[in-house]
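hey can u run this one w/ 1-deoxymannojirimycin bound, need the C-alpha cells asap thx
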Amino acid sequence: MHSWNGYKDHAWMRDEVSPQTGGYQDSFSGWGATLVDSLDALIIMGLDDELELALEALNKIDFTTTRSAEVNVFEIIIRYMGGFLAAHDLSHGKHPILLTKAEELGEMIFNAFDTHNRMPQMRWNWSKSAQGEEIQPSSHTSLAEMGSLTLEFTRLSQLTGNPKYFDAVQRITNELERGQSKTKIPGLWPLFVNAKDLTFDWSQYSLGGSADSTYEYLPKEHILLGAQTDQYRNMYENAIETIKKKLLFRAMTKDEDKQILFTSNVRGLKGGALHGVQYIQDHLKCFLGGTVGIASKIFNRTEDLSIARGLTDGCIWAYDSMPTGIMPETLEVSPCAEIEKCPWDEGKWYEDVLGQPIHSREHLERAQKQVEDEGLPPGIVGIADPTYKLRPEAIESIFIMYRITGDKSLQDAAWRMFQSIDKVTRTKYGHSAIEDVRNPLPKMSNKMESFWLAETLKYLYLIFSEPNLVSLDEYVLSTEAHPFKRPS
Ligand code: DMJ
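ok here u go:
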C-alpha cells in the first residue's frame, strides 16, 4: 500500500513514480505501466477499492499514440498485456474493459510483425508503420525479447478466439526450434539473434539478461498449451541438457554441505568449444531455479529437482552473504572443480580474487587488500555491479520451490529477504532501487520499476499465503508474474 499510494498520489497514469522525489517517469511509452502491471496484485491482495479506481482509469489509456519514438515490444507486452490478461483471468472475466484493452494493445502491436519474414521489429518505429512505410526486424535482436511473447499472445488468442496472435508467436518458435541445433553451442541460442536473416551466429551465451525469459517460457508455454504439442518440451530438454553439460557449475563456499549452483557466461567457438568462461551470476539469472523446478515437475525430470534447489540456494546464499542481506545485480564467484564435492579452500579464493596464482606474501596481501577494499564476502571474487533494482527473480524461484516442495526454510529465506529489502529501500513515496548493497545506508537511485509491485511484492505476498491462492495447478505465471489460467 505504501508503494501503491506513492504511485497513486504522485504518478497516477504515468509509468513509474520517482520514489524519493515524488515525481514521475515515463519509461514504457507513458501508458501507465505501474497502473496496469499492478492490476492483478490488487486482486490477489483483495484491495477492492484500489482495483475499482484502477479499472475506472483504464478507459483513459490511449494506445494509439505515444511520445516515445520507439515502442519496446517486449516490455510493453509483458507489463501491459500481461497485466490486463491476468486481471481478466483472476476476476473470471467480470470486467470487460480488461480484455478490451488487451485486444486494443494487441491490434496495435501486431503491426510490429508486419515485416518481410514476419519476425517482429522489437524496438518498433511505430510512426513508420503508421505512415505505411516498410519496417524490418533487427539483425541484432535480443533473444529474450523475441522468444518471450508466446505466453501473452497465446492467452490473447485463447481469450478472444482470434488465432492471429498465436500464429505470430508460433512463427518465432518455429524459427528458434529450427536454429537450436545450428548455433555455436547447439541446444542454446546466443544472446542476440539476427531476426532479419534468421541466423544465430553470435558467439556470446548466458542465461542472464537478453536471454533469460526465452528459456523460462519453454515449459510455461507447454503448460499454457495444455501439453498439446511436444515442441516446447523438446526445445526445453535440448536446452537443459546443454546447460547441465556446459554452463552449470558449483560455487565454492564455506558451507560445504550446501550445493550452491550457478551458470556461467561463455563464448561459443565453431565446433562447440567454449572460450572465455566467466563465473558470473547476475540477479536476473535467479529465475532459473524456478524454471528448472517447474520443468522437473511437468516433464517428470525428477533428477533435475535438486539442481533447481541448488540454483535457488545459490541466490539465497548471495543475499545472505551481503551486509545489507541483498544480492547485487552482478557478482563473480570461485568455481569448484566438480559439482559433487567442493571443500572450502581459502588460498584458491584469494587466487580467484587476484586473477593469478599466489606465489608470495606480497600476492596474498594484495588479494586480502582487494577483498577488503571491494567488500568481498568469502567465495565472492568480484562485484561488477553492486546495485539492487528491486528485482524479483530470487524470490520468484524461492516461491516456486516452496510451492513444489513445501520446505518451510524457503519461507524463512523469503522473510529474511523481505526484511532486508524493506529496511534499506523504503522511501517517502515508495521503495527505491539502491546503488550499493554493500552499504547498510546506501544511496538511492530514485527509481521504482513497475515489477516491484507486479512481481517482487506479489511473490512475497504469495509465499506467505495458502497455496490455493493462485494455485500453480490452475495458473501459469508469466515472466512478469502475471497468472494466466491454465487449460483444464
Ligand atoms: C521483469 O520485467 C521480468 O521479470 C523480465 O523477464 C526480466 N526483468 C524484469 C525484472 O527484473
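The longest helix spans residues 73-90. anyway lmk if its weird
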